[in-house]
Amino acid sequence: MSEIFHIGLGNNDDALRKKADADFVSFWDEQAKNLSWFSPWEKTLDWRPPFAKWFVGGTINASYNTLDIHQAAKSDKSAILWEGENGESRNLTYGQMFTQVQKFANVLKSLGVKKGDRVTIYLPMVPELPIAMLACARIGAAHTVIFSGFSATSIKDRVADSNSKVIITADGGYRRGKIVPLKDVIDEAISELDFVEHVIVLERTKNKISMSSKDQLWTELIDSASSSCPAEELPSDHPLYILYTSGTTGKPKGVLHGTGGYLTHLYSTFKWAFDIKDSDVFFCTADIGWVTGHSYVVYAPFLHGATQVMYEGAPDFPEPSRMWEILQKYNVTIFYTTPTALRMFMKFGDDIPNSFDLSQLRLLGTVGEPINPEVWKWYFKTIGKEKCPIIDTWWQTETGGMLISSLPGLETIPLKPGSGTLPIPGVNITVVDENGGDVPANTKGYLVIKNPWPGMLLTLWGDDEKYKTVYWSKYENCYYPGDYALKDDDDYIWLLGRADDVLKVAGHRIGTAELESCMVSHPSIAESAACGIPDEVKGEVIIAFVVLKQGISNDTSILEKELSNKIRTDIGAIATPKQIYFVSKLPKTRSGKIMRRLLKAIGNNEKIGDVSTLEDGAAVTEVQQVFDELQKSIKENSR
Ligand code: WTA
Fold it and tell me: Any idea where the AMP-binding enzyme C-terminal domain is (predicted)?
C-alpha cells in the first residue's frame, strides 16, 4: 500500500471530466474557444489515423495569443523576471516583449524569412530566446531550437534536416561561471552548409568571436527594425516548430508540432495542473532547448499572461542554495522542476532550503522521469512545508503537453508519491500487454493512448512513414509512447521507465542507437553497445561496451578518452558514458540480440543470479556462461 496525501487547492469541477468522458471531441472544441482565433474552425477533428488535424479551417497565431491579447490589460505586467547566472537581472513586461517580438519578426522578414520556412535557434537561456521563437511564430516560420549543450555535429545534422537558411545564436553563454562559445560551435556546424544565408549573433558574453559576411549582430538589426508587425493569420495545423529528439534509431527525429491544437492543449493543462492565477509567479527550471521549456516556459505561461522567472545558469551555481535564493527573491508561488534536480537538492541537505523563506509557494511540480517516493516526500515536506500539492506530470516531446498529472486547478484527488495519478480529461490512456489486451490492475504493461489529443505531433519532419512505424505500428490505431506502466486498484497510473532502448540521463532523452552508431564510427571500433544503469542523482547514467577491430592493440585508456571526446563532439557532453568497457565480443542471444541485462549487471556490479527477468529468452546456463566470458574479457582487455 502506498502512502496517500490528501492535499488540494479546494477546486472541484466534476463537470469537466464528465463532459470529456461523454465526448472528447466536443470537449476539446469547447476548450479551444479559450484562445483567440482570427476565424473559427469548421471541423473540430479530422482523424485519418494516424494523422490528426484539429480545428480544421480555423486560423490562429501563437504570437498573437501570447502577446497581442494581453496588451490592453497587462502591458505593464512582468512577463519575464530574468536572473543571469552572474547575478544580473532583467524585468521584461508584456508590453516590452510585444515590441521586441515585432521588431525581431521584422528583422527575420528583412532577411528573407517567409511563412513556412524554418529558423534554427541556438541561444542560451536569455529572454531573446523566447523573443526569437515568438517572432518566428508571428510570421509563420517554424523554429527549431537546439539545446545549447549540443555539439557542432548535432547542429549540422539538424540544420541540414530542417533546411534552415537563418540561424540565431549568441557570442557565448554562461554555464558554471565559464563561457560556452556558442558562435564558434555554429561556425563549425555550418562550415559546409552553403545554403545557410544568415547568422544573427546576440552579444551576451562579449567574448571574442569572428564575424563573416553571413553574420550580423542582433542589436544592429533590431535597432533599425520597425516595431509594428501584424501577426500572420495561419491555419490551425500550420507548423509551429520542429524539435529534434532521440529515439531508437541512429538519428534524432524532428518532432513537428502545429499551432491551434498544441496551444489548446497547453492553455488547458496550464490552467488545470498549475491552477494559474494572475497573481502567481511561475518558475519552470527546464531549459527552453527541451520540450518542457517550449511548452511550459514559452507558450503556456504567456498564453495565460503569467509572470515567470527565467534563470540562465546551473541550479547549484555558485552555491548549492542558488535555486532557493531565486525562489525567495522573486516570491515564486509555483515551482516546476525535475526529479534529477530534486535528488541533487536533497543530497545537499535540508539546512539549505530551510534557511530561505519559501512561504509563498503554493504548488509544486515535477517532470521528465519517474520520481522516487522518498524524493516526492522530501519535496512535499521540506520545500512545500506540507501545504503544496505536487503534480507529477507525464508527457513527451511528441505529446506536446502533459497527458498524465493530478490537476489541482480542477479537482482535489488524493496524491500517491511516485504515481502520475490520472490521465487529463479528454485523453484515453491505458496499460496493455504485448497483444494489446488490457492488463489486470497492478500488472506491468505498456502505456498506450487510444484517441488523438490536441497537442499531439503532426508527424516527424519529412518522414510520415517513420512517424507511422515508430508510434502507431505496435498497436492498431493506438499511440505507443515506449513507456512501461501499471494501473493500481484506483486506476492511478505508475510510470515504470522506458520499454525501448531510450535512456533518460538527468531527464535528457538519449537513444542507445545514436550512441552506438557514434562509437562504431571511430576507426578502431568494430562493435558497441550502450545501456543505462541506475544513478542516485541522475536517475540513469550511460555505460558502454566496445569491441575493437581485429589487429587493434591501442592502449585502452587512450581509446576510452578518444571515444568520450568523440561522443562529446558528435552528440554533446550529456551523452558521455560514465564508463566504457572493452570486451572481446558482445553478449548476444542466438538470434543476435544484445543481452543488455548482462551489460547492466556488469555496470551494477551484480551477480547474474540477481538479474531475474529473462527478456532475451536465453537459457539460464547459457546466460551464465556468456556472463562469465564477458567478465573475463573485461579483465583481459582493460590492461
Ligand atoms: C519520461 C519530457 C515518469 C518517459 C517531458 C517519457 C516520465 C519520456 C515523466 C519523454 C514522469 C516524462 N514520470 N517518466 N512524470 N515525464 N517521463 O520527450 O519515459 O524528453 O516517455 O519529454 O520521459 O521524454 P521527453
Answer: 514-593
